[in-house]
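Good day; I would like, with your permission, to put a structural problem before you. The record follows directly beneath this note:
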Amino acid sequence: MSRLVKLPDDEAFKLLEKYSIPHPPHAIVKSPEEAGLAAEKLGFPVVIKVVSPDISHKSDVGGVVLGLNNTYEVVKAAREMLERVETRAPTARITGIMVQKMARPGVEVIIGGLRDPIFNITLMFGLGGVFTEILHDVSFRVWPITEREALEMITEIQSNQLLRGYRTTPPVDVKSLARIIVRLGEIFEDHLALHSADLNPVIAYSDGALVVDARFIVKED
């Protein structure tokens, strides 16, 4: 009987790299001390995240710490994060710490996908935060789609004005977002065991976009 399992974080980011989906540089290490060294190589500020096959939403268990500006902060925060996660998720296997270069601020969006028994591969796009979670302001397409159709997905959400720029905020590079949507569809097409994918957040800028976190759920026999 098959079961659904979360793809390890290192494999998830390798998959992004294989399909030329941009993301911030990162390293996965085993200890708080190694996290400090990795942060020095990546350059500050950094984010640290717990790595566990049993934790889907890291922030729910205190497994994400943002805006660390020096080695001391990283080591201290990593120790505290591991203790916090062990308390809140005592049965979870912790396999490491991800140290990631902190992405500059932008517009947060979500790009996802699901292998549906009726519609096959369905792709989703929406703005991050309350727009998706509370207002359900999202758009869908059944794969295959072109980049032009992906652009239509982006423009048809009700809150797309935030992507077109407002006040002093420039419009975001929607073509970069469309490319990520299409490449996610290609990942589903090439990996039949892939059940669902959640690229969240994707941070959009006027000159590109970065996938900050990625969760892939695969079917395992």
In short: The chain is about 30% helix and 30% strand.
